[in-house]
Amino acid sequence: MTLLLQVVLVLMPVQAADISFFLDPAMVEFITFRSEEVVCIPRGASPFADGEPGLPGMGYSMVIPQGTYLESVEVEVLSKVVLQGIHNIAPVLSVPLNQPIPAVIPHSVSYTGGMFPEAAVVDVNTGNKTGFRIASFCYVPFTWDPSTGTLFLVTSARLSPAIVPATDAPHLTLSDNQVKTAISALESVVQNPEMLETYAPEIVGGVDGASWVVIADETHESIIQPLIDLRAITHGSSFVSTQWIYAGYTGRDTQEQIRNYLIDAFENQGLVYALIVGDFGETARVSGIKIGTTGPMNSVADLYFSDLDGSWDLDNDNVFGELGDGIDWYSDIYVGRYSTDVPSRLATMVTRAVAYETMSPSGVWQTAALLAGAGLWPDQNYWGSFICDSIALRIPEAWTVHKLYETTASHPDNQISLYNEGISYSTLNGHGNPGGVYWLFNPPTQLVTKVNYTGLTNIDMPTVFHSMACSPGSIENIASIAERLMFWPSGGAIAVMFNSNLGIGSPPGMGASEWLELYFAEVLFVDEQYEIGVAHAVSKDEFKANVSIGMQNWVLQENNLLGDPAQRFVAGQTGIEKGEDSPSVNSPVISAPSPNPVSGTCAVNYVMPITGTAAVAVYDLSGRIAATIHQGILCEGQGSLSFDVSTLSSGCYSIVISSPIGSASAQMLVLR
User: What's the mean pLDDT in 387-401?
Assistant: First the structure.
């Protein structure tokens, strides 16, 4: 199991129109699972349905010319061997993480038929990502005779894709910024990145729309304004009210009206990022996807607002996201959500987002990760620590990596204190529900849950969270743990990527949920896609393009981003994000108050590079001065000011020190 999970993702080269396939038989591994064999190869997964023999294939993807599609792939076998022994191949098994592994695993009729599979190339697809045509397929180099147990392996082959004209292929004209952003994202997705500029959509000049928009009720505009102002500097921004969309765009419901606006803004106004503000309701599309006996999902799928091809309801039955609804699964824009309609919670998220890019403290927390692995199916030796070990291989060696792993005997219980000391990235791998992610044994079982999240005080060092667990991102419930991590005022998350429904495993190998976690780590740490929404979407794109596995489409729909899609990961911030008002080394410095949160009197520490006049004031979220702490001379060096918050209401504030030689600010949370 460990060897399988720790294989590094290596892309196979593409030579002109042909792909050269080679696999050393020594790279084939067999794992015994319930007296049957699971076949493993590097970068391989089985593309077949549950119950079919679990022979793995290798995925390939490529950018192809505008107006074309991948019709088929011809295989020329160059060499082939018979693997020693009699092989009893285990069937494909996809198991929701909240369910036990079946005592008897179903086997399909293929176990009583002829050679399997009938065709070596499966899952031939063509889709669109931001105007680029992406073709993909899976090649299975094995054939198996179930009657004799003989297993054949193609060790070398020539794969020849047939690219043909597509009369229904869209021809988009996009802005230079849209195309450049897509090229940067696709360089890690396709295996012929050298052709991206050649096959790019046409670029049109004179696009005057904002590349980043926030969609919210008109009453929330003033609360969001600080983030709009920041994005005006970093990307070019605009506020779009839901009322304006509903008055100007048609659609069968409010969700479709919002999507129709996004399509228009994407195709005609240069849109790249969209932040949607709203809890479960008129801004949230529910997916009805069903795969086999699992589903329908009936949970929020924000991919609906990111993948803008088609209607997501091809059969027009008002059930969205089904397998037959013509979805291509690739992101066209980058979408995140602030899942709230409560002004105070929205203000907390906005203040935190702005501070994260303009006032994040330096220190080791920026390169610290926490990998939590709980028991999943321990009776089958299946643990969350396995995927954590694979993720750890993607994290730079210079990082501090905390591995909190559970055994049947014990588990750590210091995760909250570690978050408070400072963790920039964390992955949670255990069982879950809307209330949190849990250890399996030995109370306390709370890993990160609604019981212990209130202990988070990392207000200046919020974390990027990702998880494979079932349902911690279920926003249709009242304040799921994903939402609580985003709006808890004294700490928590800057971004959360959790499932709105069932996480999926595939014992004894990686399931679709684990594959997505691995790709996110690959895109963030190896490919250095530091905008969190881009990393989240591209990890899905790369997963879809280069792996074929059961329940993949389910996982692509259910894993949503709570957070600003343009938020830049702290480890990848360059200082440009802070704009012209960033403090220089010769400017004053001010620290968050102690204690923080504050309920009475606090100490505000500062550093003045030279003696001079300075003002220290408290500003509310609207930018108004709420209190003045000091006005006059401050001496060179370190100092401290006492401040009583009794005149302030509960909420988030900024403490700003300003002087002729510069200014600086820090966050303060008042709880009364």
Answer: 97
Give start-end residues of each CATH 2.60.40.2550 domain in the chain: 583-670
Rama region for 637: left / alpha / beta (φ>0; ψ in -120 to 50; rest): left
> How far is Cα 201 from Cα 534, in angstroms, rounded to an integer?
20
Q: Which positions ≥6 away from 327 have C-beta within 8 Å?
A: 307, 309, 310, 312, 321, 553
What CATH class is the domain 583-670? mainly beta
Q: What local confidence, expressed as pLDDT, does residue 276 receive? A: 98
351-576: CATH class: alpha beta
| Amino acid at position 363, single letter | G
Decide: 100 and 585 in contact? Cβ < 8 Å: no
**Strand pairing report for 559-562 and 625-634:** unpaired
- CA nearest neighbour of 122 among 57, 216, 187: 57
Whole-number average pLDDT of the chain: 92
End-to-end, the C-alpha distance of the chain in Å comes to 51
**pTM metric for this prediction:** 0.85
Sheet holding 368-373, edge to edge: 237-241, 212-216, 273-277, 334-338, 559-562, 493-499, 463-467, 425-429, 368-373, 400-405
CATH 3.40.50.1460 residue ranges for the chain: 351-576
How sure is the predictor about 668, in pLDDT bands with cuts at 50, 70 and 90? Answer: confident
Cβ(308)–Cβ(259) below 8 Å: yes
**303, 459, 616, 656: CA torsion to nearest 10:** -20
pLDDT in tens, 289-342: 999 999 999 999 999 999 999 999 999 999 999 999 999 999 999 999 999 999
Is CATH 2.60.40.3800 the right assignment for the domain spanning 2-170?
A: yes
φ/ψ of 134, rounded to 5, equals -115, 120
Nearest to 448 by CA among 464, 434, 437: 437
CA distance 590 to 579: 18
Q: 422 pLDDT exceeds 50?
A: yes
Model confidence at 622, pLDDT cuts 50, 70, 90, reads low
**Residue 13 has what pLDDT?**
35
